[in-house]
UniProtKB/TrEMBL annotation:
PROSITE patterns: MFS. This is Multidrug resistance protein. CDD domains: MFS_MdtG_SLC18_like (cd17325). One of its GO terms (molecular function) is transmembrane transporter activity. It is found in: Cell membrane. Keywords: Membrane, Transmembrane, Transmembrane helix, Transport. It comes from Brevibacillus centrosporus. The chain crosses the membrane at residues 12-36, 48-67, 79-97, 109-130, 137-158, 170-189, 210-232, 244-268, 275-295, 301-323, 335-357, 363-388.
Length: 405
């Protein structure tokens, strides 16, 4: 089994552009993190306003994704990608020169709108270019690009900030985004836009049992991942006396494990039952989340973070290729709608995860919260899998290539 399938020149160029687009998107998302103390000191925002600043990205993505994904099916991927990249460049420049919190929130909101245009369209472009047997591997590579951008954004932003001020990280990222726009405009080729007869009814697609199962799996994995962000730092600081730098390293380890496992799981999804792989990933995630509460040393915490990240990557990667296969069977080619769904539940998780973490930790100790979350994920994951089995009416055979199960 090879993680990188053989591809034509046009496929290779398309994959390269998707990797660059998703990488810069998440690089910009995490670039703000090390600069937050500067804005906190200069603008004196309340905790509520800072919460609004960070949640505005996910809210914008949630609102705009169901609009932009179907549009990309009608007008083509290239135009939508260029529109999203232009929005990213504009929002990044707005970050660089914003001198008030409302402007920062506006920049973050526009960034979320731009991500709603680029994410589902980039993934749909891969589905256009690659056949089903290769799609799992390339979707895993796309997820690795996402995790790599997340991993590098914060340290790169911190280094540029310390080197030459708070505007430099955003100006450098804006320049990289503009370069990306030029490359896409000059070199990207795509399949023609879909005719009206090829378009897909969203309501019918959402009622599909396999789609409902994937939506639930994505939501569980994203909530679990995003719930850790506001709860773990203080918990690990108090328990293990780690520094902020070490907290950053622990989350980097989790992100790295996510990125490394995603292509592996994607490649496996073209050879084995993808729904079973998703279920195994959710079970692994649920088993290892409590390890975060039980860790008594930095090495144990590092291992637990790596296992949790690997569980999320293993869970999410098969969902992307499988959504594409469901679209293939419908005969519509409307991949924009399929990946809009992924993006929507990703955004819901980004909003609901931190909110759930904050509410639960106000009621229970963090260690108890981690066990509660693990039990909930495992129980809901089992219910989702039983639901799918009942809906399909046939047994799941490990190693089956039949997506109909």
């Amino acid at each position: 089994m090879t993680l990188l399938p053989k591809m034509t020149k046009s496929q290779g160029i398309g994959l390269l552009f998707v990797v660059l687009i998703l990488f810069i998107d998440m690089l910009l998302y995490s670039l703000l993190i090390p600069i937050v103390p500067y804005f906190t000191e200069t603008l004196k925002p309340s905790s509520t306003m800072m919460g609004i600043l960070f949640s505005s990205y996910a809210i914008a993505m949630l609102v705009a994704t169901p609009i932009f994904g179907p549009i990309s099916d009608r007008i083509g991927r290239r135009i939508m990608l260029l529109t999203g990249l232009a929005g990213l460049a504009f929002s990044t420049l707005l970050f660089a020169f914003a001198e008030s919190l409302p402007l920062l929130i506006t920049a973050r909101f526009i960034q979320g709108l731009a991500a709603a245009a680029t994410w589902p369209t980039a993934l749909a472009l891969l589905a256009d270019l690659f056949p089903p047997k290769s799609r799992g591997a390339v979707m895993g590579i796309a997820l690795t690009a996402i995790s790599s951008g997340t991993l590098l954004g914060a340290p790169l932003g911190g280094w540029l900030f310390e080197a030459s001020g708070h505007r430099t990280p955003f100006l450098a990222a804006a320049g990289f985004t503009v370069l990306n726009i030029l490359l896409v405009a000059l070199f990207l080729q795509e399949a023609p836009a879909r005719s009206q007869s090829e378009q897909l009814r969203v309501s019918k697609f959402l009622r599909h049992p396999q789609v409902a199962y994937i939506a639930g799996i994505v939501l569980l994995a994203e909530i679990a991942l995003c719930l850790l962000e506001p709860t773990l730092p203080n918990f690990l600081t108090e328990k293990l006396s780690v520094t902020p730098a070490m907290i950053g390293l622990l989350f980097a380890i989790m992100t790295l494990a996510y990125g490394l496992l995603a292509p592996v799981a994607g490649a496996l999804s073209s050879r084995f039952n993808p729904f079973l792989l998703m279920f195994i990933g959710i079970c692994v995630l649920a088993v290892f989340i409590p390890a975060l509460a039980l860790a008594n040393t930095l090495w144990q915490a590092s291992l637990a973070m790596a296992l949790v990240g690997a569980g999320v990557g293993f869970t999410l990667s098969p969902t992307l290729a499988t959504l594409g296969e469901i679209i293939d069977r419908s005969g519509s080619g409307a991949y924009g709608i399929a990946y809009s769904l992924f993006n929507m539940f990703h955004a819901v998780g980004m909003v609901a995860g931190p909110l759930a973490g904050g509410i639960l930790t106000d009621i229970l100790p963090v260690s108890t919260v981690l066990f509660v979350v693990a039990g909930s994920i495992l129980g809901l994951g089992i219910l989702l899998y039983v639901f799918l089995r009942l809906k399909q009416g046939t047994a799941v055979h490990a190693g089956s290539h039949d997506i109909n199960m």
